[in-house]
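Before the break, one more example. Copy the sequence into your notebook; we will annotate it together after we see the structure.
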Amino acid sequence: MLLVIVLAAAAAAAGFLVTDHLRRPQPTAQQRSVPTPSAYAGADAAPRAAAATTTPVPSRAAIATALRPALRAAGLGPRVLAQVVDARTGSTLLDRSGGTGAAPASTLKLTTAAAVLAVHAATDRIRTVARSDGRGTLVLVGAGDPTLSAAGAGERPRYAGAARLADLAAQVRRAKVSVRRIVVDDSAYRGATVSPDWAAEDVPSEYGAAITPLLADGGRADPDDDVRSATPDVAAGKAFARLLGRSSLPVTRTATTTATGRVVAAVRSAPIATLVEQMLLQSDNVIAESLARQVARSQHATASFPGAAAAVRAVLRDRLGVDIGGGLRDGSGLAPADRISPAALTALLHAVVRSSNQGVRGITGALPVAAWSGSLAPRYLSGASRAGAGLVRAKTGTLTGVSTLAGLVHTPRGGLVAFAVFADRNDDTAAAQAALDALVARLATCRC
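Here is what the structure looks like once it is written out:
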């Protein structure tokens, strides 16, 4: 197995407070004036039997009254799909065509997060190795670490806690093996490296790269690049040669396993739970696709776009009891053809909150906080949405014409609700996001 387990106990999550795994800018003046995100304490604690809870289930009528005007907001466009459930009991509090499948955009990453933490311990790490055949060929065997860093020794990696190619190169030098060429072993994955369901402009772009078993810095040729690479495996091989002090070494790739030589160097990724948090906070598509393939590999399925999608569905059904349907085309939500319903996402959030698996339950603490962290840091700062600042924790989603939001929020009376809202026919992303935020903020203030 290329995925190894760290012999350490996972630390218990303490409420919904954000852990600082990513480099983040200092809070703006607006962010400093919003509440610290502390309203989630206890939501990821060990679940109790539904009958034992003393918190009343929010009123369906009150929820409907609170959300009715917000659901009619012009910014949402002509179609809104929504579902709100009690996160602890799963009972439906509001349904507006919630069972209809639609493009979820990046809220789909919730499925990848739950699936990978259902099959791997939060402390598992992904191992990248270098093998020598003793005759001058050094093989870099990629196992799907999406944050492996090409930063030089002493330089800060793009992703906190990342394994380093510089460390791998140092180990190779200490091993004193002959290196005349570098081969990148891509055999861990199969099929297309770019989904046929993605738009042509998605790769290369700031948000999309080809998905290969060996890549560095989220698929970038250089840690400081904004645009990612269409050939990140070869770019990583060339970066390794540079870090080895041998930039002129030829670099080739192979889709056939070459794992027969002696292992002369190895590095391990940040823990899976850290990768999940980095994916969710920054909505990182390359991390998402890499983690979806870890799910496929754990199930001995084909590590490809369709293989990973099928494996995620099977794991969520078999491990968490949630059927998300067969509409997934990828693990990130970048494909406009992806289909999942708001009801499937609220069912998944309910399962996450109630899970006895500490890693799965920890997803609640990895979600962006309104006006505070990740993709929600610049939102909920003003206007009608400001009431949700520090109180809403959710995954965002955006494609052309599609704006979505799915997550958790506490009501003033102590209820915990899960929600998923899709505005999938809008023509103004900014207006749709503002309307979604204002809608969910009403849950945060509803004395339901």
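The mean pLDDT is 90. DSSP finds eleven helices and eleven strands in the chain. Try to locate both features in your own notes.
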